[in-house]
Design brief:
- The chain is an alpha+beta fold.
- Helix content is about 45%, strand content about 10%.
- Helix 4 (about 140-155) packs parallel to helix 6 (about 190-225) and helix 11 (about 310-320) packs across helix 12.
- The model is unreliable at about 1-20, about 25-45, about 240-245 and about 440-470 (pLDDT under 50).
Length: about 475
Amino acid sequence: SQRYGLGPEHTNPLTETDTLPSNVADHPLPAHPLPAHPLPAHPLPAHALASHTADSLWINWPAATDQAPYYSSLDVLTGNIPADALTGKIVLVGTTATGLDQSLITPFNRNAPASNVYLHAAVINNLLQQNFLQIPKDYWQWVILCLGGPGLGCLLSNYRRRIQFIGGAGVAIGWVLTSLTMFHFNYWLPTVWPIGLVGITIGGLVLEKQRYEEQQLTDKLSELKTQYGNLPLLQNIPNIEEQTTQQPPSALQMASYLTEMTAQVSQLVWQDDLTQVGNRRDFERGLALAWQQAISSQQAIAILICDVDLFKDFNDTYGTDAGDRCLQQVASTIRTLVSRPGDLVTRYSGESFALVLPNTKVAGAIHVGQQICGQVKALAIPHAASPVNDYVSMSVGVAVACPHQDSLPQVLVEVANQALQRAKALGRDRAFFKVHPLAIAPIIIPFRHSQILLVGRQAAAPIAPPPPKKKDDHSSA
């Protein structure tokens, strides 16, 4: 067989002092492999090198240096070591003390480096065990590069930043575990640069996501400022285009602006501009919500529809500006009277207002209707064109129901409208209560010292319930 040998000059040059010797050159033994300390080269079987045709062999370090059996040269020369201890074994002769030759750092020996003799032992062990580390082909690096870069970026680009961080950390940890598993099977996978690639990819995704969100917020702010530029908040926001040339607003600042603007725009959607109470859309939304809550709690709900008497004649006499001021005063008065949490005051139409009073029984609803009539008249807004009163007055239709699953809120609204029409027919400037048999169960209300059972009949507002304990406690009656 051909003779092979290893010495310090066979290891590939180390470019850094803290680099593990990972591979050795594979070439025939020269005439003197160890010129400084000539040593005999031990012949190795030909089949040990037959399967290795590469230019270098990647060392698979078997264990720490203290696990390799070694004997002192003095003990061998003096005969303290029995001959059978060396029989049938490959014996390596060399220095084990570090510092006398080139010190080597191994995966198991870093703080106390190993000497070259252990490098020889590791290579011979790999040759005999046929367990050199296998390095992936070059094309696998391109596969890893594509999967860790563009592939991972496309996969996580549409997710939130938190998911992107979690996904990147999961890929990095998974790659480390895969590398350790493959190392157990004598495959050495690259670890540092794939994890670095994942980190760069996730960092790029996060920066791109932040830039996209800031651009979206900027566009939304500009759109809202264009559509609702008269909002006080929007007038206080600096011009976005001007800030881009100086210091652009942060995403947190823009999100704060957007949240406040959304609240103001929401008020425009659900609030009447003139009277500052809810609009018709708010009435329908609030009624549907209160109706479902009344079904769940099995409590009564009241609807009041209030109409300014002969408002068209008032406008014709005093002008639309005076009419607007009149509606504002009326709305403010009603909102003062109806102030419980959950009560809703809305402008139902031009001169009409609609109230939704959850957890309100018949006596409490009638009491509120009578208070509205009295307080509006107490405003003493002159109305010379009214044959009813010298001042602006109101007619109120009152309806109460205990809703169930099969009932509809529109039925109670219709009953309240019918009650309003009846109040107008009776001479205006009053509240009128009407019971609908499909909308409400039989109700007993107190009337002086007796009780009246109202089932499918009409009852005029002059029914005078006892005064409630509190001014705004409609449900106590």
